[in-house]
Amino acid sequence: MPRDITSFSNATVKRVRSLAQKKHRILEGLFMAEGLRICAEALEAGHVPRILVSRIGDTHELTLRLEREVEAAGGEALRVPGDILEKITGKANPQAVVGVFGFLETGLARLDRSASGIWIVCQSLKDPGNLGTILRTADAVGGGGVILLDQSCDPFSVEAVRASMGAIFTVPLAQADGQDFFTWLRSGPGMLVGASLNTDRDYQGVSYAPPTFVFMGNEQRGLPPDYEAACDELVKIPMRGKADSLNVAVSCAVMVYEVLNQQRRR
Amino acid sequence: MPRDITSFSNATVKRVRSLAQKKHRILEGLFMAEGLRICAEALEAGHVPRILVSRIGDTHELTLRLEREVEAAGGEALRVPGDILEKITGKANPQAVVGVFGFLETGLARLDRSASGIWIVCQSLKDPGNLGTILRTADAVGGGGVILLDQSCDPFSVEAVRASMGAIFTVPLAQADGQDFFTWLRSGPGMLVGASLNTDRDYQGVSYAPPTFVFMGNEQRGLPPDYEAACDELVKIPMRGKADSLNVAVSCAVMVYEVLNQQRRR
């Protein structure tokens, strides 16, 4: 049975709250996901929360099921009043349920490149909202996974998890430095396609054989020159506007949908 | 010559600060754009700031040029220390320049539908980051404009302006209610294409004649049923993942790039 907790100084409440900060997430290897829907999707994908915090009086069937699963797995289920949920989430109108999960990363070596024709690789991505949106897109195209290179933002931040809309639980995620990635990539089949402004090659003028790795650079700087040089193809999305720029999550989606569209026509 | 202001209680400083709030933006018909690059792009597009706030000691050529243009147009150019810029922008590391501009909306009747083959219509969009990103995409595809229907978020909020990366100044923007929009739309040529989950029609299976109006619904609910019924076509972007969902700015980009790709092949 979940325990009712009404004190802000409860150790578990304080621990969950601390996960809003990256240093505590890294220390504990845990992160927060807000909302009943996302926690239920996590469960669906086989990820049982270690801790579940829900609102006192919540009688939603999914909340009760989550609580049972958490406790059956040896985790902790708490019931708290609205003001504690506000404190935990830092929001005025918090979601009714917060789940705490273990980090979901996998190593490069454990990615199965035959599992999908579409992969996404991001270098030094800075905005967690962009990263979450890219994870969501990766799920939508049935992508094999997202690989983060170098110093990218934290995929387990509240903002990234929220923008992923559950994809953090369904899309394999690996982090690596550039050299390790290139070594791994060239140890098997795979076409590395960089999205770039430094080319006139139209993104629709290239044939994307599976597995295609779509390679996106940092929001401000794009891909570093030596990373562009390591690509099998550099391609550009046509732009007709005043500014020669697209949001990185948008460019990524336009790229991977072209790959999906080509591959589904085969 | 710009005046040096070092007091937080200066009337113009307080007025600029107040524009972080929607009610003050609406009262004054003014909004803030942060950053030298975006202010310079605004100028390029013919929009001179009414007020320009820059950092004391800033010698950037573009800042000086902006100041000259603002004063020549009868506006006000201030120089302030870093702490006042922090206060104005609410950020710890503020941009060196903040411009204040008049609202840029136009009426439906003033949109020229022959100006472009691609238009974007959004209904009750809630997230200003999504709206800004959609404006940026509209610029990139050379779209004719973005039309906001019903209760959408504020395109002149700091977050929307920032995400637009200058497109707020280059992309025509109109707001209307649904009925007025449908009346205007049907008064001339135009194909209205709704992105929807309530159809099996593939988005690549439709021929998009110019001008095509891509119609996106609210983040949670999509388009209302009667709005879907008013569309010439409802189409679906294929999804292969666990969740049947994409970020709305991402779906919009995938849609408008399909329209652009078809129209540039003609």
Structure write-up:
Chains A, B: GO terms for molecular function: RNA binding; RNA methyltransferase activity. Chains A, B: Residues 32-107 form the RNA 2-O ribose methyltransferase substrate binding domain. Chains A, B: Belongs to the class IV-like SAM-binding methyltransferase superfamily. RNA methyltransferase TrmH family. Chains A, B: This is RNA methyltransferase. Chains A, B: InterPro entries: Alpha/beta_knot_MTases, MRM3-like_sub_bind, Ribosomal_eL30-like_sf, rRNA_Methyltransferase, SpoU_MeTrfase, SpoU_subst-bd, tRNA_m1G_MTases_N. The structure is a homodimer of 266-residue chains. In chain A, the strands form two sheets. The first copy, chain A, has a six-stranded parallel β-sheet with strand order 8-7-6-10-9-11, sandwiched between helices. In chain A, strands 1-4-3-5-2 form a five-stranded mixed β-sheet. The mean pLDDT of chain A is 95. Chain A is α/β, with parallel strands linked by helices and 266 residues long. Chain A has two domains: 3-102, 2-Layer Sandwich (60s Ribosomal Protein L30, Chain: A), CATH 3.30.1330; 108-265, SPOUT methyltransferase, trefoil knot domain (Alpha/beta knot, 3-Layer(aba) Sandwich). The termini of chain A are far apart. The first copy, chain A, has helices at residues 11-18, 22-28, 36-44, 61-72, 82-89, 128-140, 158-164, 167-170, 178-185, 225-229, 248-265, and strands spanning 3-4, 30-34, 51-55, 76-80, 97-102, 118-123, 146-149, 173-176, 191-195, 212-216, 233-235. Helices cover 37% and strands 19% of the residues of chain A. The relative contact order of chain A is 0.13.
